[in-house]
Amino acid sequence: MSDPSPTVPYWHLYTDADGVSRHRRCHMTEFELKSMQPPAAPQWQGRKHHDGMTVMVTVQPVGWQGAWHENPSPQWIIPLSGRWFVEAMDGSRVEMGPGEISFGEDQGCRERDGRKGHLSGTVGDAPAVLMVVQFDSRRDATTPCRFG
What we know:
The protein is mostly beta strands.
């Protein structure tokens, strides 16, 4: 008997219909148990997304904080070491470390009180090392938790 299909949590920073960035806690749940390449044993695999992508690793120094900005394109952000935070225009703030996942998709925000998009920076006394996987394409509308 195999284990039940996994659930993988992630944070989604998105833009609502009023142009305000918000966080929503989401879960990836669509997994299929199959071999990545036979004869390797089966493993739970999520949906594949066919889009041109750019992958990079970035290091935010201790005490680093960016100005308010939108993500340059929809992107997965995966902390490899250290901790970082993301604050949305609605005032919600999420802190993340290794093993946590964020999807930044706050393009198209409207400036309010000097805020547009999000504010982010390091937390603690170590640099934040982040792997960033940017999509080449943008969506016209954001659907929270679209990677269900």
